[in-house]
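User: Could you write out the 3D structure of this protein bound to zinc ion? I've included everything you need below.
Assistant: Certainly. Input first, then the structure.
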Amino acid sequence: MPKFYLTTAIDYSNGDPHLGHALEKVGADAIARYRRLRGDQVHFLMGMDEHSQSVLQAAARAGVSPQEWVDRMAARFQDFWQRLECNNDDWIRTTEPRHARSVTELVRRIQRLNPDDLYLAEYEGLYCTGCEEFKQESQIVDGHCIEHPTLELVPTRERNHFFRLSRYRDRVLDLITTGRFRVEPTIRRNEVVRLLQGGLQDISVSRLRQPWGIPFPGDPEQTVYVWFDALINYLSATGFPEPGYERLWPADLHVVGKGITRFHCVIWPAMLLSAELALPTEVWAHGYVQWEGTKMSKTSGTAVTLDEAIERHGPDALRYFLLREVGFEADGNFTWERFDERYTADLADGLGNLASRTIAMITKYRAGLVPSLNKPTGLDQTARALLENYSRAMAAFDLRGGAEAAWALVSAANLFVQQTAPWSLAKAGKDAELDEVLGALARALGRLAIMTSPFIPAKAQILWETLGLEGKVAAAPWQAAQQPPVLGRRVSRAEVLFPKPASV
Ligand SMILES: [Zn+2]
């Protein structure tokens, strides 16, 4: 079984997660679920970035210690991710001892292997407290950080340890353009390539006398800069530097937002090259969730809370909407109107209706038993073609394409019901034809339970059980999507998968 180690960005513990965070986590979770279906040995990591200096202010405001504050926030984030059915294998927090040990060792490794890569120098620049980063001219618009137009940049001058990032420009550029280190989607790769072509400046990797963070090895006056610290979490979670960490490292996929590609596609590979460690295979940089055209973030204010969005139609519906409508590539819009429309059309009237009418007909005409006749129909042919489209899209992390293929099968199956009119076949006593039709519909539902499980895991499980199938659909062998084992199964009374809300 090939291993597949994937990660999401770790989040700052300065406020509640919003829809933007949720898009990233459910997208990565859908990828993890798909790879598990394909038989990969998946290791899915999520976590928290807890050494941000903003933690100190947030903790002071709340009247608790920084550690109490991050403990509280970690619990809140985890609660949200559990509600959204994120099935991660590990949860890392940068305040954990296992992480501090890895950070210390990575810096020592650079000091040992490439001592010229770290040097002390005076730094003067404008610091964005939102990004926790010194901003260069090109990243400032109208005197503000591009990512944080509502925050003031702080003029800062201090003596820091610097990382010789400039030395790695040519190698990182070469690795990206030759595809040995993949950056996707293409629009993000082009941005990163342009950035590298423009040249790189060395970066400060420590801050002087910060009360919160990991001490810089060999210089206790300095603290490891929060971003340098945070990136290493992907390595810490493998057990690095303990023997055996190579079982997971290098990561197969880092899922991040498009605003932090400079860290993940330029600085992180350079750090690893300097430490003479293997590079991750790929970085996937998704777009932002927009609310009426504006980026959603903690600092720009949120028009909708994650709570409200989950409550609207339940967690599965939110997962589906984010991945199908907002999308995992470019920026996408979130509106209640489109959410309600998609819920009704795709989930209640689409998949929900297909499931309830199919189960009802098998119950009524065949006493609840799926006919044992296995005769492929046109619907099976359509399903096989769509399953191929689905696999191709999911393998390329095109989650919208995967959802489109699955729901194209929903439409095809609903059309098949209209065209074959099983109620007329029953009335006319055409038993063989009715068996054929009901069998084909049961197989379509079996396939759909598998194909939709990365998007709507809880509802897919209910559908699976309704068909009389045992175990977890998430653990079903991929072969079951080709040939669903539904023949002769006893279906159970259909639960309404997606009830129509009274207001819609
Ligand atoms: Zn910023």
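Residues 128, 130-131, 145, 147-148 surround zinc ion (CB under 6 Å).
User: Perfect, thank you.
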